[in-house]
Amino acid sequence: MRVQVLASVMNEEPRELIGRMRLASDAVIINQCDRLGAEEIEHEGYLIKFYSFPDRGVGRSRNEAIMRADGDICLFSDADIVYEPGYAEAVAEEFRRNHDADMILFNVTVNEMRKTYHITERKRVHWYNCGRYGAVSFAVRRSSLLSSGVMFSLLFGGGAKYSNGEDSLFLKEFMDRGYSVYTAPVTIARETEGESSWFEGYSRKFFQDRGVLYRYLYGRLYGIMALRFLLAHRDKLCREVPLKQAYRWMCSAAKEGKRSESLEG
């Protein structure tokens, strides 16, 4: 069972990136930069395919990686991820023990301010709690991914109109099409400290973008789920913006999501 990392990065030099991420598996890396190019690098017995494109957008680059993947298990990643020793075997072992899983979500250690989840047990993921997981926690059987036809949205995420949420939409659409997603209490990587490409604090835009996302994720339940989100994280989210104001921004922006006919991508 071959694990292959699919990474979306920007303006990176391949060998420096490979070492920094501590890659110990095959990988497909999509580098958003100002040139076109492709090269294959042998690294400690693994094959790293490195593609450079001038196109921007995390959803677009993740889709490019999917189309070039050939491993059994696809593990999504970013340039600020550093893998733990033995991560590929740990991922493969979880799929061996759970034959029903089309996708498994893993722990990735992040700064406490950015932490949205911590997995402590193996259980199935459902529509109402899929919004907390980032793409770097996703490992998916490539056969299931291809048969599902699911790709990342071009409307949400870094470089898109709405600043984040492409991972949540991807996960929910995958489940909506009948594929099973489970969690595993296994830490496979950590996120390094750095400046986010999209996060600029808990501003009006943050709450408005989240409101549109919740409309797509939860339909008519967006108001209830928005309130649930704010109450669960009010100590972090509402230090500068009152909860009632944040809720109004989320709900008013959700109407924009209701008027939109479809997602792009």
TrEMBL record:
Residues 38-126 form the Glycosyltransferase 2-like domain. It comes from the Bacteria. GO terms for molecular function: transferase activity. Keywords: Transferase. The keyword Acetylation does not apply. Gene3D superfamilies: Spore Coat Polysaccharide Biosynthesis Protein SpsA, Chain A. This is Glycosyl transferase family 2. It comes from Acetatifactor muris.
